[in-house]
Amino acid sequence: MNAVGPLALALVLALAAPGCGDAGVDGGYRGEPLFALGGWVQVENLGAFVAGDAVRQGRLRMALLWAAPNGNSSRFDVVSSVAEEVDASGVFPARYSLALYTPPAASLVRAAVFGEDPVAIGVLVAFLDRDGDGRWQAGLDPLVGAVLGRAIVWAPRGASGDPFGAPLPPGFSLVAVEDDTGRCLEGGRALLTPVDADADLALTGEGVVEAALDLDCDGQALEWLAFCPPLEVVRDACEPGEGIDPGGGVDCGLCVPFLAPPGDDPAACDAWLGECLSHAPAPDCELEWRACRGEDGDPALVCGDPACLCEEVFRACLEGGGEPPECQARREVCLTF
Hints:
single chain, alpha+beta, twelve-stranded mixed sheet, two-stranded antiparallel sheet, 14 strands
């Protein structure tokens, strides 16, 4: 474990919630916890997120962020329920303990990848709570660390078979991510294996991009799109490079891949729009699509719904010199999403 100096210790102690372990951030009694775990706090890169008065700007807290089912839930529904506030207490030397009192919302329970048992899967992160409300908010509260190589599974009636290396009991379980290369089944290796051990929290100044599991093994991180602010905010905060935007709280490494491709090739922009509509709100996709096509000035919202946008694809194709059959094909592809 890395040495922990006075400033690091101040961060660790900032994780502490005053009072007994069953008191929430507001001091109210929350009942008996459903699940508890703890681990070492490993300070790997203080300089990345502790600059100037960063500690005073926002209290360091932990949150359990649940993956969105199918990567296709309303942004506001997901954000309000995904950022589950958790109770945390820190004790010297540099350990945390955490208790979970409520299961995730029913809307976040999904069929397990490669299996049939319904589960919810989440990751533990650390963030600077800038507004002091005890909850993580995308685009406001910077993510500064995560529990890597571990995930939390909620299985209402237990789970067995792929992708789990051993049967899970009903309720919460801590699982290890076995396949670090693709984090998917490969060569008979299980994706998630239950463990009974510490879950170390790494304070790296980086967000959840390394902890975000590709749950459906499609090579994308759509399950975590809801952790990003609107795409226009991502573009303003993160362009041209990736990494953490210290001012806006955006995890650019996670969110930049959701932006439209660089360049202004109309066909590429239209193809991207169709894919975007399958997992993101139409207004987000529309603004990005218009920016992708190089519309002058700040792109204006014209449609805001998928059907209208697909008609706009057809119209823009014709105005760009496309042949009617080609433009009709683009519209039909768009309507399939």
